[in-house]
């Protein structure tokens, strides 16, 4: 890759293929439908590239061919240091190294485009498999094996009886909290094109003749536009713009698919009575959000921003409810003679007339003798008035709106129009119960140190600056509580009542928040109702959590909230910082221990506990299948409620496709129910006790090994050198900085997400596994480890997640990244531990290579490997060349920007290729 006058390192080169050449021992033939769709996408992309530039197409084909061979060589064991002539990875490097910057950028976009298409094909295949499995289910079966919720409920009935199973179902709550952590490197403009291509591909296989030709033309248009669209956004999004992530998911999946989840459960459990009787399934899905309200280390999230985002969410969901209310209402065309309105409905109509004869006259004109329809149309107009803040007509709360809907429903049921009562009208009630007038429950978060500094400032200078000007941050802290109060007044308490304290160290941190909440208002009646949630993140904080909670419940404000809520309390556990602080093995065991101790403490105080899991997509941040994580929790720590953060690329992966969103929600809900089954509780309790000694020994050895690495002199600058840490901070993929602004100057200052993201980019994934190999080696008892893997859900989930993470590492590429630094001692520690961990994990699971017996996941990673490898090679060479030339001051500003753009393209591609990097 060259500029006009000098050699430049390779550009971005992402490649995708269904796989050709020598097969590795674990590779299986792709399913015919998946291969056909991938081949179609490749064919269209190649034609698009040829139309753009024949030379680009030639380079694309050449690099793709060698990258495929390089991947085959690695997976089949052919590649070795003694046969350099067979190293097709080096051939990829040589080809791209000779390209100029402009051509390399185009090649990068070509491979990144096909990479997105391949992911899309795989997603479509998963959907088709689910449809096929559903089609094969016999409707007379006791459960729907594809709908895990029905299986879990059936097991609860068998173990506990119908009455207790129904009690647990009524308590069910799944609370995903969407956050704006910067791990999703895909532009929103790209997401829109991907969604349209997905729809076209789905239709393509069903069409013929002219319709198929038109479909193909539109596919060409979208893929051409996708290639011509830069994968990197021009600027970082503002927090207000980040809120569009939730609006997009809400519009395309959640608003319509969540009622389908409830309906699918009802249809199976109620059988022929479904749609004729009141529903069984509660509205258990309660989404939350940190977008626009998480200000920990993000100066871009201000009180003004929080107000704007809350208004954006509220107006949007009110608009959606208005449209649905009008649609459902227009279809309630039952006239009074066949479906007489109830006295309650007539009373509601009279109340509406008293409120506005203009609206009722308009509705009556449209719906003569159709009172159910007329009432619904007025309700839709009142929702519009709520958006416009018309004080005379607006709904004061969502509860009032739901009450009106249920009045219509009861009237229809009394008139024996049961299918109308429990059909689309019930879906609308579920939508209102799920999303309210707020769409998502906004949760505010700030660092404990910020609160203590604000109070110190107020005590020194006076609340109103009587003894000197208050710091800007103090003003902002007070304004935050005022913003929270205004959101509550506008959208209800549910819209914003949670306040999370990062790095909670003591009960004083909780007192600080309640004090600031009081100080922010002149009149006590204006002080908002808040539930302060401690967040325990670091190892020491997890160990001290119960002591802090014991002191916390002595605080008068906490006691008042416990009394008002019937003893409900939330506690948040941070998977991210605990992992960076103690290493993955110790963090996993410490978190499990903390959950167990907190659950026992809550039970002893008759507290109705909800544990909030601050998980990410990466294994180093608690990632992995959420349903298995739920089933591995200690007794009493779930209680039919599961709350976790959903962030970055995980949001789009889990909720971007309606079918997969339904599957995900059903799976997590099923595990949340099943966790209360006596058999599951007994197994978790017994196995935790049985393997406590093993866990203790693994914990100590792994922790020491991890600290030995982190405490090695010069580790922090070396880490920044051998990963794209600096460049990740430049990627415009989130409003949040990569570092907290509290003055730290080392790894303590670095957010955990860039820590994990950087290791993933370097294909080392160190944050997911480092220390486990040494711990297993020192423990030495393979039989006990294997037995624990078979019997203890926590350990088996942990090992399986590490095996997945190891499958995404690549020692060949890792060595190239490590060579960017000049620390052979650190390189050796990392590579030795990687080899040792791989050896022990494979022995424990009984595999010869990672994911040998997990064919679906193994195949998915196998498909991605070639193009992720090419991207990684390109990235590491570009990093080395950029840093070398910057040090020598050889680059102009424009040339440096070109390098940076190439690196950011590879960061985007690798993040999407690895699927769970954040």
Helix and strand topology:
Layout: H1 32-52, H2 54-76, H3 88-97, H4 101-135, H5 148-160, H6 162-171, E1 173-179, H7 188-204, H8 209-228, H9 239-242, H10 244-270, E2 288-289, H11 303-330, H12 343-355, H13 357-366, H14 371-388, H15 398-414, H16 418-421, H17 424-435, E3 441-447, H18 448-461, H19 472-491, E4 498-502, H20 507-519, E5 531-536, H21 539-543, H22 545-552, H23 556-564, E6 568-574, H24 575-582, H25 584-604, E7 608-614, H26 626-631, E8 641-647, H27 649-655, H28 658-674, H29 678-690, H30 692-710, H31 715-722, H32 725-728, H33 752-761, H34 766-769, H35 772-779, H36 782-791, H37 793-807, H38 811-818, H39 824-845, H40 855-887, H41 893-914
Parallel strand pairs: 1-2, 1-8, 2-3, 3-4, 4-5, 5-6, 6-7, 7-8
Helix pairs in contact: 1-2, 1-4, 1-8, 2-3, 2-40, 3-40, 4-7, 4-8, 4-40, 4-41, 5-6, 5-28, 7-8, 10-17, 10-28, 11-14, 11-17, 11-19, 12-13, 12-14, 12-15, 13-14, 14-15, 15-17, 18-19, 18-20, 20-22, 22-25, 24-25, 24-33, 25-30, 30-35, 35-39, 36-37, 36-39, 37-39, 40-41
Structure description:
Helix 20 links the parallel strand 4 (498-502) and strand 5 (531-536). Residues 1-27, 78-82, 618-623 and 738-745 have low confidence and may be disordered. The radius of gyration is 29 Å and the shape is globular. It starts with 31 loop residues before the first helix and ends with a helix. It has an eight-stranded parallel barrel with strand order 1-2-3-4-5-6-7-8, surrounded by seven helices. The chain is 64% helix and 5% strand. It contains 41 helices and eight strands. Helix 24 (575-582) crosses helix 25 (584-604).
